[in-house]
């Protein structure tokens, strides 16, 4: 229902502060990964009728009894997806930073 909001919030924060983050961290990669995931999930939720193009936008917001379930999904599923994206980014940054050192050892 709203799991895409967690990576979206992270994407907003990293996009706002991207100029303050050192270039070596490749924050652009993280932003691409986050916003790509958000776009993919939003399209999937629109296709399944979970997102409306008019208020309240999320079908779970129409019934107040569904809001706690939506918030739980946001925290558990969205949080896990965001953590997985950030972990993949960390692995990519660490791996690419080690490549020049590995090539020097081969020579």
Structural features:
107 residues; elongated; mainly alpha; single chain; 0% strand; 68% helix
Question: How would the blueprint of this fold be written?
Answer:
Blueprint: H1 5-16, H2 27-47, H3 67-106
Helix pairs in contact: 1-2, 1-3, 2-3
Task: Please provide a written account of the structure.
- With 107 residues, the chain is mainly α.
- It has one domain (5-106).
- It is built from three helices and no strands.
- It has helices spanning 5-16, 27-47, 67-106.
- The protein starts with a helix and ends with a helix.
- The mean pLDDT is 89.
Number of strands: 0
Q: Order of SSEs, N→C?
A: HHH
| Share of residues in strands | under 5%
**Model regions low in confidence, pLDDT < 50 over at least 5 residues:** none
Radius of gyration: 18 Å
**Total of DSSP H or I helical runs spanning 4+ residues:** 3
Give helix % range.
55-70%
Average pLDDT, all residues: 89
How many discrete structural domains? 1
Shape: elongated
Structural class: mainly alpha
| Major sheet attributes | none
Compact summary:
This protein is mainly α. Helices cover 68% and strands 0% of the residues. It has one domain.
